[in-house]
Amino acid sequence: MPDIPAAPVILGNEPGSFPHSVLAERHPAIIRQVREAFPYEPRQRRALDALLANCTEGEIEPLPADAHDRERWETWDMDAHAGHSWYDVPWLWSESWFYRRLLDAVGYFGPGPWQGIDPFLPSKRAELDSPATDGELAALDDLAGRPAEEQARALLHGSLWGNRADLGFRLSAEGAEEAAPVPGLVADDSERLWSLLGTAGTGTLCLVADNAGRELVPDLLLVAHLLAQGRIGRAVLHVKPHPYYVSDATPADVVDALRRLTAAGGAAAAYGRGLWTALSEGRLTLRAHPFSCSPLPYERMPDDLRADFAAAAVTLVKGDLNYRRLVGDRYWPPTTPFADVTAHFPGPVAALRTLKSDVITGLTPGTEAALVAAEGQRWRTGGTHALVQVRA
Ligand SMILES: O=P(O)(O)OC[C@H]1O[C@](O)(CO)[C@@H](O)[C@@H]1O
């Protein structure tokens, strides 16, 4: 690990800051949304009320002795944070804790009739079934006639901007972006990524997925294309073992996305069938490792996960939250080299992310200055900029 000076860990205790607004406003809004989405019973409603009070005004209370994952949370710093305000512990930790406690409140971990019912399913399904998704899948028919290289670039673009829930594989979108005053892409190592993926490869691609629906669909399309073109021999798709950060993809969401593709007809269905076959033949594997919902940076990943990533030709890490966990959720100076903050990662790694939180590394001084001149600090959190960063 290079000797880089540690930057301050992001906490949520500064009123007016983005992390503070997530804890003070977004989490209560998520609780309201979940209450309205299901006919939860009185016990669950009382538990949601208690969570609302606890997460905004209370202290972190350890999991009960019989919680199925208590030991795991002990290794994830629960005892060190117990007794503190949610605002005074690392923001990354507080956010993960919120989803863990929310699932408890609605009875997700059971036992009982609500066990395994995803409280975010209605919003995920609505997005997947939206007419916007129809239009985006239909656009694949035009893409199918283009040269493979062009398809690959368009699908990468779709996967990247899909992180904004905006499938970008409509080729027309590419030019629009270049016309913006500050480029949409604040760092673009995509050529290095293509060189890692080669043109004829037997290696494994690990894709650490982020959101379900309109992000997962283009992620799957990209994987399908790379497998079909023989640029990789195998893919491992890492998803979350349980609902998380509202829209994060779980194994059930992968199945929903595949059904959506195969039912769409045209080129989308062909991609869907290819993925279905790849899963049944073991060329595409699903992983839902507990650490994928951990409140810790990837630097602290367990050995089995480390071995997975070490064996990959490249690991694609999708989205803002995974970026925060990859580089460390800290106020890095924006020009801190990406290679330095990802030196802990056990193999070649590429981040594909739209910018939705304060964490950023790997910018050139010129890019940072142009962004600040045009937008102040809004570019960090607005989701209007994106990056492709690679450490080979
Ligand atoms: O879906 P993504 O790209 O991981 O974004 C989730 C994002 O939600 C927030 O945590 C706010 O809750 C972001 O700052 C975070 O990183």
Verbal overview:
The protein is an alpha/beta fold and 392 residues long. The protein has two domains: 18-119, no CATH class; 127-391, Uncharacterised protein PF01937, DUF89, domain 3 (Rossmann fold, 3-Layer(aba) Sandwich). 48% of the residues lie in helices and 9% in strands. The protein has 17 helices and seven strands. It has a seven-stranded mixed beta sheet with strand order 1-7-6-5-2-3-4, with helices on both faces. It starts with 17 loop residues before the first helix and ends with a strand. The protein binds 6-O-phosphono-beta-D-fructofuranose. 6-O-phosphono-beta-D-fructofuranose (F6P) binds at residues 22, 26, 95, 163, 210-211, 245, 319-321, 324, 356-357.
Spell out the key features of this protein.
binds 6-O-phosphono-beta-D-fructofuranose; 17 helices; 7 strands; 48% helix; 2 domains; alpha/beta; 392 residues; 7-stranded mixed sheet; Rossmann fold
Q: Architecture of the largest domain in CATH?
A: 3-Layer(aba) Sandwich
The total beta strand count reads 7
Largest sheet descriptor? 7 strands, mixed
Count of helix runs: 17
Binned, the helix content reads: 40-55%
Average pLDDT for all residues: 93
Please write the string of helix (H) and strand (E) elements. Answer: HHHHHHHHHEHEHEHHEHEHHEHE
Give Rg in angstroms. Answer: 21 Å
CATH fold name of the largest domain = Rossmann fold
Please give the CATH class of the largest domain: Alpha Beta
Count structural domains: 2
Structural class: alpha/beta
Family: Belongs to the damage-control phosphatase family. Sugar phosphate phosphatase III subfamily.
Catalytic activity: beta-D-fructose 6-phosphate = dihydroxyacetone + D-glyceraldehyde 3-phosphate; beta-D-fructose 1-phosphate + H2O = D-fructose + phosphate
Protein name: Damage-control phosphatase ARMT1-like metal-binding domain-containing protein
Domain Damage-control phosphatase ARMT1-like metal-binding: 23-368
